[in-house]
Amino acid sequence: MISITxxxxxxxxxxxxxxxxxxxxxxxxxxxxxxxGTGLSGRLRWNLPMRLSQVEVQYLVSxxxxxxxxxxxxxxxxxxxxxxxxxxxxxxxxxxxxxxxKRKRREEIVAYLDKMLEGKRRKGKIxxxxxxxAFIQGELDKIxxxxxxxYQLDLKDPWKEEYLPYNFPIPTTYQEKLKFRVFExxxxxxxxxxxxxxxxxxxFLAYPxxxxxxxxxxxxxxxxxxxxxxxxxxxQSRLAMTVKKTLLIATIDxxxxxxxxxxxxxxxx
Length: 269
Known about the structure:
Blueprint: E1 2-7, E2 10-13, H1 16-26, E3 31-32, E4 37-38, E5 44-45, E6 50-51, H2 54-62, E7 66-70, H3 83-111, H4 113-122, H5 132-141, E8 164-165, H6 174-189, E9 193-196, E10 204-207, E11 218-222, H7 231-242, E12 246-252, E13 259-262
Parallel strand pairs: 1-7, 11-12
Antiparallel strand pairs: 1-2, 2-6, 3-6, 4-5, 7-8, 9-10, 10-11, 12-13
Helix pairs in contact: 2-6
C-alpha cells in the first residue's frame, strides 16, 4: 500500500514509484513541491515530493489505496539530525554521482579515443600507446571530483524514520462533504482528471484526459445551495468563457440529498 507522509498537517508523497503509480493508475495529479531543476531538455521542472490536497487524500483513503503516516521527528521546525549519518549520506551521494560521471566520461573517451591519442602525439605529450585501456583508466583517475555542482534527488526517502499511523481528518463540514462528493463523482464515475481550480476562481478543474495533454473542460464551483446569478457569478462565467471552459456549479439538493450540477443560464462556453 502507498504511504502518504503527513508533515505539519500537509500530505506528501516522497517515493517516485508511488508518485508514478498514483498518476498513471489512479489519475491523481497533486502538485510537485520539491526544488526546481532542469531536465535533459533544459526546461525548468519541479521535483518530488508531491503535495496532495485534502480531498485527494480523503478520496484515496476511502478507496483503500493509501495509508497516512507521520514521523514524530518531522513535526518539529528543527528536527534533530544525526550529523555522522547525515555526512555519510551526503558523501555517498557525491560518490554515486562521481561514479556515474566517470561512466559517462569513459563512453566519451572510447568514442573519440583515436582522435585524442593523435592530438596528444602531435603536442608531444605522449609516445606510442600500446595499452589503450590503461590510457583510458589513467584519464579517469584524473577525475577526483565533479567538474560542476549537481543535486541528486532520492527516489525514496533516505532517512530511516520511525513512521506512525496518522488518522487523516474525514470530511465534516457541508463544504468539505460537497467537495468530496464532487471529486468522487467526477473521478470515480465520470473518469475525469481533477486538479485545483484556484487559478480560475473555482474549486476544481476537470480534464477529459491527462492534464499534460488536455485542456480543462470544466471549472467546478462547489456552492452550498443553488444561488441566483449575481455580479460575482457573472464575472466568473465570463472568465470561464474567455478561457474556453464551462463553468459548472455543484450543489446538493436540500430535499433529496442528491448531487446536482448546473451551468449558469446564458453563460455556456
